[in-house]
Amino acid sequence: MSLSPVEGVALAEIESGGDAGAEKGFVGRSPGQLAWARLRRDRTAVVSGAMLLFFVVVALAVPLIEMAYGIGPREQFQNRLDGFGMPLGYAGGVTGEHWFGLEPGLGRDIFIRMVHGLRTSLFIAFAAAVITAAIGIVLGTVAGYLGGWVDAVVNWVTDLTLAMPFLIIALALTPTLALRFYGQREAVPPAFQIGVLVAIFALFGWTSTARLVRGQVIALREREFVEAARAAGAGLGHMLFRQLLPNIWAPILVSFSLAVPAYITSEAALSFIGVGLTDETPSFGRMIYRSLDYLQTDPAYVFFPGVTIFALVFAFNLFGDALRDALDPKSSR
Amino acid sequence: MVRFLVKRLFSATLTLFAVSVLTFLMFFALPRDPVSGMCPKNCNPERLERVRQELGLRDPLITQYAGYMKGIVTGRDLGSAQGGRCDAPCLGWSYVSNEAVFDTIARVLPVTLSIVIPAAVLWLLLGVGLGMVSALRRGTWLDRVAIGFSLTGASLQLYFVGAVLLLVFVYSLRLLPVPSYTPLLDDPVRWASGLVLAWVALAFLFSAIYARLSRAQMLETLSEDFVRTARAKGLAKPRVYGRHALRAAITPVVTVAGLDVGAALGGTVITETTFGLNGMGRTAVDAVRAGDLPTIMATVLIAAVFVVLANVLVDLLYAAIDPRVRLR
């Protein structure tokens, strides 16, 4: 008995579609359609999804927002600060003109800097999540399917990666790389800093996906359809990407959706300890770091970026959880 | 058991060896002149050259690495400018702080331990307890509160929570002193009051993750046959849940906890920065900023040792917790 990959997927559809189909006659629906229907019925998923959409739209529309708002991220409004560099007015200088107030000291507009920071942060997080997922999937499937010494090597490299203190290495590597490519005096362009950050996340972040995928592949490896394909003489590439991968996309998708907020957090944490992005590029972490100096005199300054990054990560986490429930054929919701 | 331990320790040593080589290459072999950072402001070429000589930077890399490793195992003789004889766990000499790196570590490691160990106890108790309660009371208001708590905690940032805590308890209410470290044996009250905010911040964020994880695990375990069997044969609920179910549910929690605690012991950079405490994390950050190579090496290595040891410990704990696990 040999099952083609298409039939393998079709079988999975029937299996997971069974319980829902029993209610209203037998309607063939793919797992994707089922998950989508569940997701739309889930109020949390809809609300958090809408929040995410909002954040993404804001990040994509940065130039438009900047035009409508009429203030650039590097413009300084010294005339609206008092003699000590503190913004005039309430809540850190919130006015109709400066929605979230001004930074103490430099007098830059907080709202427009946060909009820019959001774009940087989302870009880095998505790029890092895509790259780590790709590395993790390839290493995980290969290690899980081949087993033996390949598995042992991948496992050992995973352990090694986990043993390296991420923050310290990142902290040490970034300036060294910048010096290597740009020298002591040259200014390092933001694009390079962003690239380095993504590369560091890729270097350290693939382990969790690799472990997840490896576990799933080991569970699938001995199933009949895999055996059948192997007996029919399928090549390694076909086995990995045609037979195994389509059966484990659900956990991968969930781990991806939870990886994005983790990278948002990490990017902010790195900027917070002063690696990665410099003050030139607006970023949440940098803002919060600066705001700690003004904790007593201007608490509103820590409040705006702090709450926004919380809302962003919260929405991602909620959505990831809802996605997990929707994709899990065993879940009752 | 013994055989497993030997095998596991061997692979752990191999990992540490690889970490040390990688770190060494990363910092000593990269083209940046390692000395430029570790010399005080006005330093002439001759002094730079002497420092290079004393650090042995003119030697081939293998010799440098071997010297460093020999220092850790047997101690080594450093130049008179570096304090002369450096005893067994010799981690080198820092030109930036003008002391043996070992002394620096001995000073800052207790700070990190004092932050992490109480915080870890707090977060494990709180997290696993909350996860268990919400799994046992599934669907009630208690469960919903616990889920809300863990989702909030998992999305909050340490520096933000830290800032809010500082603002409320230190600057506004003035209930607590500005965070600082006092050795436990000198004055336990000041030790606790200076660190309690860091514990609370860490415990809040971490317990959220553990509550989530242990709730999911507990729910899965509760639907297993052996739990029903235990109840059916007349065992009391607390015994079934507290012993049988918890034991089965806690294994993945132990894995995650091992990694987290191991990583945290190597330095809680963000926590230490937020609360202005000078532990391993701050030391590593400062060393990187100053280009203080021997200190960077030492902090990375010690952090790796903690992670690797925590992993070995987790494997041993597995066997103690889960009777199905046989150590081979």
UniProtKB/TrEMBL annotation, chain A:
InterPro entries documented for this protein: BP-dependent_transpt_permease, MetI-like, MetI-like_sf, OppC_N
PANTHER family xrefs: D,D-DIPEPTIDE TRANSPORT SYSTEM PERMEASE PROTEIN DDPC-RELATED, OLIGOPEPTIDE TRANSPORT SYSTEM PERMEASE PROTEIN APPC
Protein's cellular compartments: Cell membrane
Alphabetical UniProt keywords: Cell membrane, Membrane, Transmembrane, Transmembrane helix, Transport
Presence of the UniProt keyword Nucleus in the record: no
Membrane topology listed for this record: Multi-pass membrane protein
Organism, as annotated: Micromonospora halophytica
Family, as annotated: Belongs to the binding-protein-dependent transport system permease family.
Protein name, as recorded: Peptide/nickel transport system permease protein
GO cellular component: plasma membrane
Lineage start: Bacteria, Bacillati, Actinomycetota, Actinomycetes, Micromonosporales
GO biological-process terms attached to the record: transmembrane transport
Chain segments annotated as transmembrane: 45-65, 122-150, 162-182, 194-213, 299-319
Boundaries of every ABC transmembrane type-1 domain copy: 118-320
Cross-referenced SUPFAM superfamilies: MetI-like
Main localisation: membrane
Automatic annotation (TrEMBL), chain B:
Gene Ontology biological process terms from the UniProt entry: transmembrane transport
Gene Ontology CC entries for this record: plasma membrane
CDD domains in alphabetical order: TM_PBP2
Classification via Pfam families: BPD_transp_1, BPD_transp_1_N
Residue ranges occupied by any ABC transmembrane type-1 domain in the UniProt entry: 109-318
InterPro entries: BPD_transp_1_N (IPR045621), MetI-like (IPR000515), MetI-like_sf (IPR035906)
PROSITE patterns the record matches: ABC_TM1 (PS50928)
Entry annotated with the keyword Transport: yes
Transmembrane segments: 9-30, 111-133, 145-171, 191-211, 245-270, 296-321
Topology within the bilayer: Multi-pass membrane protein
Keywords: Cell membrane, Membrane, Transmembrane, Transmembrane helix, Transport
Family that this chain belongs to: Belongs to the binding-protein-dependent transport system permease family.
Protein name: Peptide/nickel transport system permease protein
